[in-house]
Amino acid sequence: MSNEAKVALVTGASKGIGRGIAYGLASAGWDVAINYNRDQAGAEATAAKVEESGQRSWILQADAGFGDQVTSMFDKLRADAGRLDLLVNNAGVQTFASLLDLDEEDFDRTIRTNLKGCFLCSQQAARMMKEQGAGGAIINIGSGANKQPFPSLVDYCASKGGIENLTKVCAVELGPLSIRVNCVAPGAIEIERTKLEAGDYAGTWGPITPMRRVGQAKDVAAVVVFLASDAAEFTTGQTVYVDGGLWTAAQWPYSSDD
Fold this sequence. Notes:
Elements: E1 7-10, H1 16-27, E2 31-36, H2 40-52, E3 57-61, H3 67-80, E4 86-89, H4 104-132, E5 136-141, H5 154-174, E6 179-186, H6 192-195, H7 201-205, H8 217-228, E7 239-242
Parallel strand pairs: 1-2, 1-4, 2-3, 4-5, 5-6, 6-7
């Protein structure tokens, strides 16, 4: 294991896209701090895979939507890893409910986790990177919901649209500190959660995606690794859609009657 590797923190890395990003970063030579909220076993499995790549890992429990927990997480990161070069804001939740049926507490939970969590972690990461004086990168995980209105995903769309503009303002403010902030917006990605959304997820989304397949977590991870690298040192404030062309396609699977 290398003690000279850069350190990344990935929130919500116990499963799904977050886990895939952790794997991708480890394969590219990053040491990875793995945040989870409830799934400790999943976080431990992610950490084991990171260490199989020859990189160091740390497991950090926190609900990204609460400031006291985020502060404690970053304090532990300082103590354990000693530095931070990359934050990936991946933690997120969804509520499937129409505007007329959505509960206030579910709206609050989604905005708190997805948008407020992104803010809280970015603020702490930027402070830490400023102290180090060596710049860094923050990558926010968005969605097609950054710009597409999905019926029955009212709070999710609101949170992801907010993340896109939060990315831009953070990029403007943190640029003078050599901290780059970008957003990666996945399309139809086949992971544990999305497989439960449709009986045949790949069969539903693959045919309407111009690349004629659904994405995998590794597709998202590859773009995160690039944006975190020196090859992207002059790229900031951008949103990169990793969607096989889905969100620019003429076909759209939803109608106002769905």
